[in-house]
Design goal:
With 325 residues, the protein is of the alpha/beta class. The protein has helices at residues 6-13, 17-25, 32-45, 51-54, 78-93, 106-119, 135-142, 167-180, 196-208, 222-233, 247-260, 273-278, 287-302, and strands at residues 63-67, 97-101, 124-128, 147-150, 162-165, 186-190, 215-217, 241-244, 265-269, 281-284, 312-315, 318-320. It folds into 3 domains: 1-48, 434 Repressor (Amino-terminal Domain) (Orthogonal Bundle), CATH 1.10.260; 53-164 and 288-315, Response regulator (Rossmann fold), CATH 3.40.50.2300; 167-284, Rossmann fold, CATH 3.40.50. The protein is 46% helix and 16% strand. A 6-stranded parallel β-sheet has the order 2-1-3-4-5-11, with helices on both faces. The chain has a 6-stranded mixed β-sheet with strand order 7-6-8-9-10-12, sandwiched between helices. It comes from Paractinoplanes aksuensis.
């Protein structure tokens, strides 16, 4: 017999998983008509909430959960894959196991939290890909579910412990390297404003190279990077070097420079396997250390050893020099 989950109930009642969760945990926020429909579906399907999981903090399962990101273009998505490998290794050394889950967006991920907490005796979560206005942390905090994040709470107070990479320092180092190599026109190829990570990477370039600042913003990807780089390289005063917010954008910039016959130095960010294979100079993140620090903070939290003030860890990246710059 197939297991009945929150998703099963949601489908039968014609509502979202979050609505089913609200009916179970905070029914007063749901309209009476919807509450009754959901309760009828629960009764018909015989859905039973796992009470042990709902009182997760009374026991220790040694199990933590983390989201696995979509593949995207297969280049920069590998960064979080490396983080997950590091987290799994660090968790194993600390006596924990890692459960992976997928989610389409923040709301779907929050619904997944509720479903996982109802079905499994989880100890905690590790969150990745934090961003401005991130609702996931407040949802977990409101329910006293332990968590740490790989990524700072952009634009919000440090109300929880986190580990992050100093993205601005990475692009600043790359820019200073290009300046030392004699480049006087260094452009930046990044993402649209509003992304915490992307804004920080642009800020590092701007901080190190203020006087001549030509830049372009586009969605992440090789093809979009090539289009944006082409617009910069056909400028009246084209840059002689480009600092890029990702290896995907850097690959696009190399493609555009080759097509235009430009001699343009290019630096990427993330030091992916593709960058290593083609000789792309790139900024490398200390992902294994970041994962180990996340696990350390989580272990302190679960063992009751965490300080009263949240711990924040900002790790420096390193510039890996290759043929392109």
């Amino acid at each position: 017999m197939e297991k009945v989950t929150i998703a099963t109930v949601a489908q039968r009642a014609g509502v979202s998983r979050q609505t089913v969760s609200n009916v179970i945990n905070t029914p007063d926020v749901v309209r009476e008509e919807t509450r009754e429909r959901v309760r009828e579906a629960i009764t018909e399907l015989g859905y039973r909430v796992n009470q042990a999981a709902r009182q997760m903090r009374t026991g220790r399962s040694r199990l933590i959960a983390v989201r696995i990101e979509p593949a995207r273009d297969g280049i920069n998505g590998s960064v979080l894959d490396r983080f997950l490998h590091g987290l799994t290794d660090a968790a194993g050394l600390a006596g924990y196991r890692v459960m992976l889950y997928t989610a389409a967006d923040d709301n779907d991920e929050i619904a997944t939290y509720d479903e996982l907490l109802s079905a499994y005796d989880l100890d905690a979560f590790v969150l990745t890909s934090t961003h401005h206005g991130d609702p996931r942390t407040s949802w977990l905090a409101a329910r006293s579910v332990p968590f740490v994040t790989f990524g700072r709470p952009w634009g919000a107070p440090d109300t929880h412990s986190w580990v992050d990479i100093d993205n601005a320092a990475g692009t600043a180092d790359a820019t200073r390297h290009l300046l030392a190599a004699g480049h006087q026109r260094i452009g930046f190829l990044g993402w649209p404003a509003g992304s915490g990570v992307g804004d920080a990477r642009r800020e590092g370039w701007h901080r190190a190279f203020g006087p001549w600042g030509v830049s372009a913003a586009t969605t992440d990807g090789v093809e979009s990077g090539a289009v944006a780089a082409r617009s910069l390289l056909t400028n009246d005063e084209p840059p002689s070097a480009l600092v890029c917010a990702s290896d995907s954008l850097a690959l696009g910039a190399l493609q555009a420079a080759r097509e235009l016959g430009c001699d343009c130095a290019v630096v990427g960010f993330d030091d992916t396997a593709v960058a290593q294979a083609i000789g792309l100079t790139s900024v490398s993140q200390p992902l294994a250390e970041a994962a180990a620090r996340c696990m350390g903070l989580l272990a302190e939290l679960l063992d009751g050893r965490a300080p009263s003030v949240p711990t924040t860890v900002l790790l420096p990246p390193s510039l890996v020099l290759r043929q392109t710059a």
